[in-house]
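User: Structure please.
Assistant: Input sequence and predicted structure:
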Amino acid sequence: MIPYIKKFAVDKSWRIRYLVADKLMDITKEIGEDVAREHLSSYYIQFLEDTESEVRTAAIRRLSDFGKILDAETLIKSVIPLLKKL
């Protein structure tokens, strides 16, 4: 399942990326928090930097939930600086 999620997370269509960002917590529940932390953290960060505002908005809406599974270092070094830009 992970290869398909990764494929859709970097899809050329912003609507597909939006759906992945929007359903990130549903995906996390299905694959488990440890797997999500390992495989989806970098894609979550990419969603926060996406060129489409809809994708960024979907990622921000999931911050309170997805942020709970991220480690402190990732939050401090990667997520918080992006939030300051937004």
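Helices lie at 2-9, 14-22, 24-31, 33-48, 53-61, 63-66, 72-85.
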